[in-house]
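Contributing new records

If you add data, match the layout below exactly. Sequence lines come first and carry their own label; structure lines follow with theirs. Keep one chain per record. Anything else will be rejected by the validation script.
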Amino acid sequence: MKISAIRHPDYLRSYEDYVKWRLTFQGGRNFVQNYLVRFSKREDENEFKERRAMAHSPSFAKAGINKLKNTFYSRMSEIVRIGGPKSYISACNGEKGGVDLYGSAMNRFMGEKVLPELMTMRTVGVYVDKPPLDGKLLSKNNDKKPYLYIYKAEDILSWNWSYYDGEFVYYNILLRDTDYTYDQTTGLVGGTRERFRHMWIGEDGYVHIQFWTANDEDDENDIKDGPEITLPLKRLPFVVLGLKESLLADVADYQIGLLNLASSDLNYVKNANFPFYTEQFDPVAAQVYNRRPPLPNIARNASVDPAEGTYVDSQRADRDDEVIVGTLKGRKYPKGVDRPDFIAPPTEPLLASMKKQEQMKADIFELIDVAASNAQPQHASAESKQMDDRGIESGLSYIGLELEWGEREIAKIWAGYESEEPAEVKYPPKYTLKSDEQRLNEAEKLNDIKTSAPSRTFAKEVGKQIVDVMLSDKVANKTLETIKQEIDEAEYISSDPDLIKTASELGMVDAVTGSNALGFNGDKVVPKAQEEHAKRLALIAESQAKGAARGNPDEAPVQGKDADAKREKDNSQKNKDKQSNPAQDKTRGAE
């Protein structure tokens, strides 16, 4: 059997799904061309082509996947990589061509190339390659470091694995490469060609590679493309990351249904959503049964049927019931019947279909979120099982664990090329899809119950939950731990300014504790604040009217300390009979 024709049974079972998932995520004209179907036999080929030409792809699945991708990407700055070859750390930072020789840092490579393939196609392969050495001189090989590129699920054709060194690893695999072909005259890219990469662990324990080119001849074997290559590695330089199921497994058919429904509505709006002309008629008056005879051929200047000698298109002769209508055309109608009119088609079916489309759009986003929450990785390390024991907030964490496992395997292969110890890789343990508004609402509800129990420990634990809700995927884990430690060490359980103000006015809290609760350094700022407050009171007292009546008798004039007080008393007790309004209250102030 030709090696180019070998396919794993799982590959054959999944290929149609691969095509559907790929086109669902990509959208565009290819999706429309493959999954838009004819209404029925009543829609002829020309009508279908016209409808397909104006159909659009409802690429909501892509938007849902990108939302998840952005959620992961926002946390990738917290990935920890410790140790390993210098070339690995340098490449992970995007230096010297990055990890893919295109300047990509590891976060970008995993977030933009590996992650979307993993979520949409369920499977993605990462190949760790290295240019061949040019002799043994170090100066000629300084820039020759490992680099990465991916294989899509459709290009991982067949495989076999076994248990090795405490884990299941591939020891025999067939991949499909697509290479460019070049014009011999200009050197420009002129097309593509396929070749097949067969890798296996040989009897010597090292990796062997043989490239093949498919042979079009039925009876001939495929053609070897170059000599067999042996790599100084004990394991295949290929990592396959996988989920139990694609996040588009249920969404793809939903989007296909939405495509056809939207196309039907668009076709209706274009061709049928117009007023149509109606009029009553009297069969006798209209003489619908008395049609005109065909006109002579010479008069009509038309083609002649040799057999009959009559006008070929006689069945399309003028009829009384065929009228031309328009804004500049008139129409007579018989006496005693209703006037002709234009009737608009009903809009209820179109509105119902539009509502259904909105529901399906919302369902697509919901199905993607549900699929992400239920995602399960194919590889579960010992550390991931420990995380299961602690509880994982979302199925998104499983995807993060698969990415972490994949990068650890990449680090092992990279270190194998460099004959060094691999780097340690640690991904964030938690991810969330909540919007800022949802976080704020949840935090407010938690804050409302924080003081509902007479327990300081309860209040502080709820406070830690508020921190997790608001900041768990926005700041580094080290910062989160610092915040929670500050909550444990605090002598207070609330930092609400209104609550602290009320407690201070009621004498329930001292100024230093209240200041600390508000985030200030009470021991440092309270003495200064009190000093400034005293000065401010003195200035207020000085600016007010002087005298005993103003509350400061020591500042009253020497000639009469009681003069101001007496004058105010006299003004408040004047004879009411002299007032314009005797009923007016005279307790304070002049008339």
